Model the fold of this input.
Amino acid sequence: MTITESVTGIICGLIIHRTGRYIEIIRAGTVLFALGIGLHIDFSETSSLAEIAGIETIAGISAGMLFDPPLLALQAMVSQDDTATATATFNLHQNIGSFMATVLGGVLFQNGMRMRTQGLNNAGLPETVVEQLSGDAAAANVDVIKKISDLTQKLVVKRAFASSLRYIWILAACLAACGAFASLLISKQVLNTEHVETETGIRKNEPVT
Done:
C-alpha cells in the first residue's frame, strides 16, 4: 500500500503540473478509495495473501490520488495572503480526523473482541489467553495466535480478530463514501502559472499621528 501510494502520488503531481487539472483526480480518487476500503470488509480468517495484496493495492492507488490534490484545490481557492492559514487549517482537520478515526476504530475493535469472549471460551482456550484477547489490549496481543498449537482454536481466534476488524472497515467505508459525495462540491479553479512573491509575517501598525 505504501509503495503504490507513493508512486501514484508522484504521477498525479506530474499530471497536475502539466495539465493543471485536479478535480478529476480528486473525484476519481475518492470513489476508488471508497471501493478499496469497502473491499476490506470481505477480509476473513482465510483470506489469501494475493487477495490482501490486491485490495491493499487499490487502496494505495486511491490514497496516492488524494495525497496532495485536495490541498492544491484549497490553495487555489484562497488568496496568496491566506495560503499559509488555509494550509495550517487543512492539516489541523486532517490530524483531528486521524485522531477520531483511531479512537473510534479502537473502540469498535475492542467491543467486537469482547462480544466474542464466549466463543473463545467455548473453543477451550485457557482463561489467561481469553483475557488477553477480550480486554482493551486485544490488538496488542495479536501475537498470542502464534503460541496456540491447536489448529481449531487458532482458527477461532483468527475469526474473532477478522470479525472485529470488519466493524472498522464498515465505518471507514461509510466515511469514504461521504468523502466521495463531498468531492462533488469542490469547485474548479484555474491554477496560476505565474510566480508571485508575497511578504509574510506580522504587519506593523502605522504610528498614530
Remarks:
- The mean pLDDT is 88.
- The radius of gyration is 23 Å.
- The chain is about 65% helix and 0% strand.
- Helices lie at 2-19, 23-39, 49-65, 69-77, 83-115, 117-122, 127-134, 151-182.
